[in-house]
Design brief:
By secondary structure, the chain is an alpha/beta fold. The protein has 5 helices and 5 strands; from the N terminus they run βαβαβαβαβα.
Length: 200
């Protein structure tokens, strides 16, 4: 049997607060709920906190990247400072390039970006991907769900789910896709010992 995708969506986000709290408390749950209403089957969504502790975390992330149909990227300034986030973004951009996506002849893509922060803080490539602006609803605290503004957020997430479902449908047939890896961290600075010229 030919290998196939394990996941419909890879959720890419920075683990730094407040983004992680917002993704955990609000975004992820609503994405799952409304994506299930936009697909004829139960969606399979990968998010990194589901990786079991004690496993080879890096390998699990890389396997999920390769075996996901598309990516939902939660964009913030910190996202573009994270080597891991940049590798995840680059992995799917490379796949889009490979299949001539986001072109005049084929404007569809397999990345759906959402803006946690104002889009003028992002690189041009990210703003050109036309992210769904959600920064008016980026309250990370759980109490946000009890406000009237949360109803507006739900409506926005319904629209996001429809767009993500279309993105999933645009995924190419599974293949051995290229994988971008995060740039290695620079070596930690070592404190040099002082040499003293002691003369008695």
């Amino acid at each position: 049997m030919e290998p196939d995708y394990d996941f419909d969506v890879f959720v890419s986000y920075t683990r730094a607060p407040p983004v992680r709290d917002w993704v955990e408390n609000h975004f992820h749950r609503l994405l799952l709920e409304w994506l299930a209403q936009s697909l004829p089957y139960e969606p399979r969504v990968f998010v990194d906190w589901e990786v079991e502790k004690g496993t080879q975390w890096r390998l699990e992330i890389e396997n999920a990247l390769k075996r996901s149909r598309g990516m939902v990227a939660v964009l913030s300034p910190a996202y573009f400072r994270s080597p891991w986030c940049l590798a995840e973004w680059g992995t799917f951009r490379e796949r889009e390039t490979l299949f001539h996506m986001r072109t005049q002849n084929n404007p569809r893509g397999i990345i759906h970006p959402v803006a946690f922060s104002p889009t003028d803080l992002f690189p041009a490539e990210a703003t050109e991907a036309n992210p769904t602006e959600l920064y008016l609803y980026n309250y990370p605290v759980k109490a946000f769900a009890e406000t009237t503004k949360y109803l507006e957020f739900i409506d926005r997430m319904k629209a996001v789910a429809v767009l993500v479902a279309r993105m999933i449908g645009a995924a190419p047939q599974f293949a051995d896709f290229p994988l971008m890896k995060p740039a290695p961290a620079p070596p930690a600075a070592t404190r040099q010992r002082r040499s003293y010229d002691v003369r008695l």
